[in-house]
Design brief:
Length: 281
């Protein structure tokens, strides 16, 4: 562990014990070990004086502090900020769609048939995608913390990119669960948009963004527990999940190729997903 990190963690633990926000039973081994912690000549914690129990307690204290900080941001505020982003880019289109009785799929196809719009979509794709990812990089732990603490029956939508626009799934699922968790379709689609034919990617992003806006009133309703919560897909956002999935896929690909060609392969990897299909060889 980095010495500066260790210093900050142990000092957080010491401050918590001194202020009474962190308590241990009388005669605790951790308290005794904490008393043995010494400072080096530079004023920072001497790593050699830090017992394993102190490190463990310091990590727990840091996690509890971070959790309290995340709980200070309300789940409803996060949802409101998410829908503000959707409204900024798709609000006018959503209003027009409702006004003229169109469906998200119809609007998506209409925009995808406009060459100027598709070119603009391609030009802004990288910045838009980065903005959505930055939003969830910051707020995903907040949403996760609130969802963990919800004492209710929760259900996560696991079908397509997003529920069908033909019917509001919350109206039917709500009969059986308290809170319906929907994956953010923008995060899912924008992750792979650069590898998809531009007109198709444009159509899908518009379609599902408009579908998501249809859940705004339910997500922002002043009800506890919330009826609908939009959350990021952890398989996309968290690198450990993606690394594990890639490693498993690599092994399956090698095994499949070995069976097909009757020979063993080693070190084989699929084409890199970091390049568009048109650039792969």
């Amino acid at each position: 562990m980095d010495r500066d990190e260790l210093h900050d963690l142990v000092m957080l633990l010491k401050d918590g014990v001194a202020s009474g926000t962190i308590r241990f039973s009388k005669g605790s081994q951790v308290l005794a070990a904490l008393d043995d912690v010494r400072f080096g000549p530079d004023g920072k914690i001497d790593p050699g004086s830090v017992d394993g129990s102190v490190k463990a307690a310091a990590y727990a204290a840091a996690a509890a502090t971070a959790r309290r900080a995340m709980k200070q941001i309300s789940l409803r505020d996060v949802q409101a900020r998410y829908f503000d982003i959707l409204d900024q880019f798709f609000g006018k289109t959503f209003s027009d769609m409702k006004k003229y009785g169109m469906t998200p799929a119809q609007v998506g196809r209409k925009f995808a048939s406009d060459e100027n719009f598709v070119r603009a979509f391609e030009t802004d794709l990288q910045n838009f995608s980065s903005g959505v990812r930055e939003f969830w990089d910051y707020y995903a732990p907040v949403v996760e913390t609130h969802l963990e603490d919800l004492r209710c029956l929760k259900s996560v939508f696991g079908g397509d990119v997003f529920p069908s626009h033909r019917a509001n799934i919350a109206c039917s699922v709500g009969l059986y669960v308290d809170t319906l968790i929907l994956p953010d379709p923008l995060l899912r689609l924008l992750t792979f948009a650069e590898f998809t034919e531009p007109h198709k990617a444009c159509s899908l992003v518009v379609k599902h963004a408009l579908s998501a806006l249809g859940y705004r009133d339910l997500a922002l309703a002043d009800i506890e527990p919330p009826i609908v919560v939009v959350a990021p897909d952890p398989m996309i956002l968290e690198d450990p999940y993606r690394v594990a999935l890639q490693a498993t896929s690599d092994r399956d690909l090698v095994e499949h190729a070995s069976t097909m060609f009757g020979r063993r392969f080693s070190g084989a990897r699929p084409p890199s997903l970091s390049r568009p299909l048109s650039q792969r060889r």
